[in-house]
Amino acid sequence: VMGATKRVCEMYCQAMGATSHTNFVCVRFGNVLASEGSVVPIFMQQIAKGGPVTVTHPDMKRYFMTIPEAVTLVLQASVLGKSGQVLLLDMGSPIRIVDLVHRLIEVSGKRPEDIPIQFIGMRPGEKLFEELLCTQETCIHTAHEKVKVCRLNSNGDSDGAVHRIEACLHDIVSTGDPAFARACLKTLVPEYAYNGDKSG
């Protein structure tokens, strides 16, 4: 659900960027290391207690960026981005969460075999691998070697897109029905697939 709502925000900004005198530029983040809500502080606490470190799945992979990289992306977006664009940082290859845990254990002065890892299972709706691009999206280069522009599909009807999104949001708030909210998200983001996440 969260990914679909972020996609709707991008679509809205893209449409507003085409119809407003204000410039709207989005940035698409990976997981920001050591930020509030990051898994790294949680892992470090678990390591400090001697474990176990809880990981959802042994093959889980995620893209990571540092706080300075996140700040750079925002600043570069203000310079390089054109209204309605979504910018993405080249974060290299995704990192296996288990490998990240092993590195954190070593940084803590211990050996990976000293701290047990407990696999607790994936949460409903969670994916093994992150997808940085939506269906039929492409990335194009910018003047900055690590910053790319995501070329989003658009039907060319920016005014219609703004009104459609606003109408959906109004209906969602009016009904207060999670199932209806998910159905609305599906109409706006066809690639969204609901996997039984009761929190959303």
What keywords describe this structure?
10 strands, 200 residues, alpha/beta, two-stranded parallel sheet, UDP-galactose 4-epimerase, domain 1, 4-stranded mixed beta sheet
Chart the SSEs and their pairings.
Elements (H helix, E strand, L loop, with lengths): L1 H18 L6 E3 L2 E2 L6 H10 L4 E3 L5 E2 L1 E2 L1 H14 L5 E4 L5 E2 H11 L9 E3 L18 E4 L5 E5 L6 H18 L2 H11 L12
Helix pairs in contact: 1-5, 5-6
What does this structure look like?
The structure is a single chain. The protein is an alpha/beta fold and 200 residues long. It has a single domain (2-188), classed as Alpha-Beta Complex (UDP-galactose 4-epimerase, domain 1), CATH 3.90.25. 41% of the residues lie in helices and 15% in strands. It has 6 helices and 10 strands; from the N terminus they run H-E-E-H-E-E-E-H-E-E-H-E-E-E-H-H. It has helices at 2-19, 39-48, 67-80, 97-107, 158-175, 178-188; strands at 26-28, 31-32, 53-55, 61-62, 64-65, 86-89, 95-96, 117-119, 138-141, 147-151. It has a 4-stranded mixed β-sheet with strand order 1-6-10-9, with helices on both faces. A two-stranded parallel sheet has the order 2-5. A two-stranded parallel sheet has the order 3-8. Helix 1 (2-19) crosses helix 5 (158-175) and helix 5 (158-175) packs antiparallel against helix 6. The radius of gyration is 19 Å and the shape is globular.
